[in-house]
Each structure stands twice: as C-alpha cells, then as structure tokens.
Amino acid sequence: MSLKIVDSKTTEHAHRRNPGFPLDLDWVGRVRMNRSALERRAGTIGARRTVKKDYQLAWLLKAITLIDLTTLNADDTAGRVERLCSKARHPLRRDIIEKLGVENLRILPGAVCVYHTFVKTAVAALEGSGIPVAAVSTAFPHGLAPVETKLKEIEASVKDGAKEIDIVIERGMVLRGDWQALYDQVKAFRKACGDAHIKTILGTGELATQTNIAKASLVCMLAGADFIKTSTGKEKVNANLVTSLTMIRMIRWFAEETGIEIGYKPAGGIATAGDALKYMALIKEELGTHWLQPHLFRFGASSLLTDIERQLEHGLTGHYAADYRQPMV
Ligand SMILES: O=C[C@H](O)COP(=O)(O)O
Questions:
Q1: Is there a domain that residue 130 lies in?
Q2: Is residue 278 annotated as a catalytic residue, yes or no?
Q3: Mutation test residue for ligand 1: of 70, 76, 138, the one with most atoms within 8 Å of CB
Q4: What is the pLDDT of residues 233-254, one digit of tens each?
Q5: Which residue in 110, 132, 142, 143 has its CB near the most CB atoms, within 10 A?
Q6: For the CA atoms of 295, 300, 305, 308, what is the dihedral angle to 10 degrees?
Q7: Alpha-carbon distance 10 to 261, whole Å?
Q8: How far, CA to CA in Å, does 54 sit from each of 49, 50, 103, 283?
C-alpha cells in the first residue's frame, strides 16, 4: 500500500522553524472573521469526496502518524502512561499490519502527550522509539498561575525530556484585547522552551468570537509559536470545523506574509475515523496536502486511534473487532 498522499514541498528536515516577529498591532487590528460565511464553508467539507473510498485506508494510516496520543485525566497514573506508550510503540495489531502489507512503513503516532508529572515516565517508556513526548505545561488547562510558575513548569518539562510543550494562553488577555500581554507571555514561553517546539493552546471555546480566535492565532504566531492548537479538551466547546477554518486561514495568511509554515492541532472531542478524515480534507483543501505531515499537523486525541484501528479492520474484513481486542490503556 502506498502512503504517498503527501507531496514533499517541505519535509521535516527542510522545515524552517518560526523565528518569531515583532507584534504588528496594525495587522492584528485588520483581522476580521465572518462566522456565517465560515459556517457555510465548513458545511461543505468532505462533501466533495476529497478522499476517495479506495484511498481511505491509506488516509487512516496517515492519520495515525498525525496523532498526539493523549492522556490528560485527573486520575492518570504512571501505569496508564506506560500502557499508552506501549500502544504508541505498536499502534496497530500485527495481523492488521500484515493484512495491509505495511510492515515496512513506520506507522507511529506524532507524539505522546501527558501532564508534566508523567514526562519522565513517558520518556523512559518510549526510549529508542523516536516518538517524542509532549507535555502540557503552564498550569494546564486554565493557564491561571503566576508567569514565573508557568515558566518554571516549562523548564522542568524540558529538563525531564519533553520535546514538545503545549502551553495554554490566558483567555482573559484575549477577551480584554490585551495583545501586548499575550504576545509578551507567549514569547517568554517560547524562550523557555528552547529547542522544544511550542504549541499554543487558545482555548477557543472560551474566546467568544471567531475574530478573537483569529487575532489570538496571529499574536501567538508572531510571538514564535510552532503550532497553534484549539483546545485543552476541557472546555465546553472544543475543536470543530468552523474554528479550524478560522485558524488555518490565519496560518495561510501568516505563511503568505512571512514565508513561515505554522502547524495546526485541533484537539478535544475528535474521536472517530470519520472526524479525522474531515479534518484532513479541510487541511488538504485549504492548505494543501503537504501540510498533512507530523511537523505541520497533529490531532490531539485520546480515543481516535481506537476507532481508526476498528475502521481499518472493518475495511479489511468487513467485521468490527470486539472491544477487548483493542484495549487502549
Ligand atoms: O489535547 C488533547 C485533548 O485533551 C484530548 O481530548 P479528547 O480526550 O477529547 O480526545
């Protein structure tokens, strides 16, 4: 099976990291989003058969490589994190891999995403696999702690071996329109991350308007974000296609103006293979297939892999596996 659904305009190797730019308040002021136009457009996603049926299995395999396999629960334990890491090392059952004939492809998730407390556990459990650990730092999920505390948390996560840091912004800064404060804080977070990549979680369900989401996206990108991410998974409204359209149009605009390609991570509530295909279709239509690579796109999801595995098996055999055959953690 061929996984050549991406062209190689930018490979991870050639990717230029966002160096950050000065805060351009004039640009921020010009940003406007029209919610009803976005809703109309979002309603057409996937309707044009962007992914042909024959290619769906390949797209679902590709989707696995784009997942930040996540556990962010109050009752997480080292044991659960270890089981998740073991699933990350072997995301698909051997018999499915053999039936698909993809033994030679490196199908591994983009990262394993955990609370800071479990970074060391995950790093040890993933040793040698090449799968990076992402930590949610900066007082996840609300982001409300003194900035010094949040910076220390980032530094601690990096020290423990996290290669990616998912920070949360303070929603109040957006609601007050205090773009300078948001810019300064994200810039400081970026500096604390050092070589670790920074994903900025906007908490879009709490930002009131699509225009606010668009402006916050821009300010985070100007401050040096490597990825912009929708949600913590804990807000009442998490990732959806309308918000995604807003954010990826800002990513497109930013790329046109600066030449820098920023990653996109929808997160929260993305649980089915059908959802994954819709998001991938959206990216393909709005940004192009080369954005569907782990350094430019991730799903933040705790249960998506389970459904993808079920759908792959169904596509191969016409049957769904019993739940006990696909334990997650
Ligand atoms: O960033 C990831 C989210 O917390 C995962 O949300 P989920 O459990 O709804 O998939």
A1: yes
A2: no
A3: 70
A4: 999 999 999 999 999 999 999 9
A5: 110
A6: -80
A7: 9
A8: 11, 12, 20, 19
* pLDDT tens column, 151-201: 999 999 999 999 999 999 999 999 999 999 999 999 999 999 999 999 999
Domain contains 16: no
Three-state secondary structure call for residue 198: strand
Q: Say how far apart CA 123 and CA 135 lie, in whole Å.
A: 11
List the domain range (segments joined by +) for residue 108: 25-317
Q: 220 — phi, psi (to 5°)?
A: -65, -40
Alpha helices in 118-207 (DSSP H): 119-125, 147-159, 171-175, 179-193
Domain-located, residue 50: yes
Q: Return the closest-CA partner of residue 238 out of 226, 246, 230.
A: 230
Encoded tokens for 297 = 């796109």
pTM of the model: 0.94
**Nearest to residue 221, comparing CAs of 243, 254, 266?**
254
151: left (phi over 0), alpha (psi -120 to 50) or beta: alpha
- Does the beta carbon of 70 sit less than 6 angstroms from any atom of ligand 1? yes
Residue 15 lies in a domain: no
281 lines ligand 1 (CB under 6 A): no
Q: How many domains would you assign to the chain?
A: 1
What value, to the nearest 5°, has the Cα angle with vertex 311 and ends 306 and 316? 130
Complex confidence, ipTM: 0.95
Point out the catalytic residue in the list 150, 265, 278, 284: 265
- Give the three-state DSSP class for 299: strand
Chain position carrying tokens 């640009």: 27
Distance 43 CA to ligand 1 centre (A): 23
Q: What is the DSSP string of 48-94?
A: T-SS-GGGHHHHHHHHHHTEEEE---TT--HHHHHHHHHHHHS-S-H
CATH number for the domain including 124?
3.20.20.70
